[in-house]
Amino acid sequence: MSVSIIYRVFLLYIEPLSTIIGAFYAHFLPRTYLELTHAPSAPASNSSLPTSTTVVLTQLANLYFLFAINEGLVLRATNDLKVWRILLFGLLLADFGHLYSVHELGHQVYWQFWTWNAMDCGNVGFVYLGAAIRIAFLSGVGIGAGTPMSSGFQKQKSP
């Protein structure tokens, strides 16, 4: 089986790296993360963040890190198309959940891309891209029966 280079570059490098950047912001720059998400409801810059907020943002960072590890390492560890499909289907469901999570910002956040800040680009635009790539993969676009899929790790031989 062969997989388009677009899938390999995006799923094995670009998306895991961008997800780790999101984890970094959520954990190490929580105030910036909150201000970029929705400045009017972010705590005042001269006040400390509520403990519950820092705990939840650290949990979010941990989940982002897990997302990056699952995608970046699990997909590298196997050439099995079934594993790729299962993992990418799970991530597609997470994409829909992530898009739902910003609905409180108003319906315009989904389509008024010219008003997006960096967080909106990640929370909506980048998620659209990831979902589109997953849908294409799950639909078989760019998946062929040619040369074996190259994942970056040597394929293990069965005993």
From TrEMBL:
Keyword Membrane among UniProt keywords: yes
Record-annotated membrane-spanning stretches: 7-28, 48-69, 126-147
Residues in DUF7704 domain copies: 3-141
Keywords linked to the UniProt accession: Membrane, Transmembrane, Transmembrane helix
InterPro entries cross-referenced by the UniProt entry: DUF7704
Domain of life of the native organism: Eukaryota
Record has Membrane as a keyword: yes
One Pfam family named in its UniProt record: DUF7704
Entry-linked PANTHER family: CHROMOSOME 1, WHOLE GENOME SHOTGUN SEQUENCE, EXPERA DOMAIN-CONTAINING PROTEIN
Listed name of the protein: DUF7704 domain-containing protein
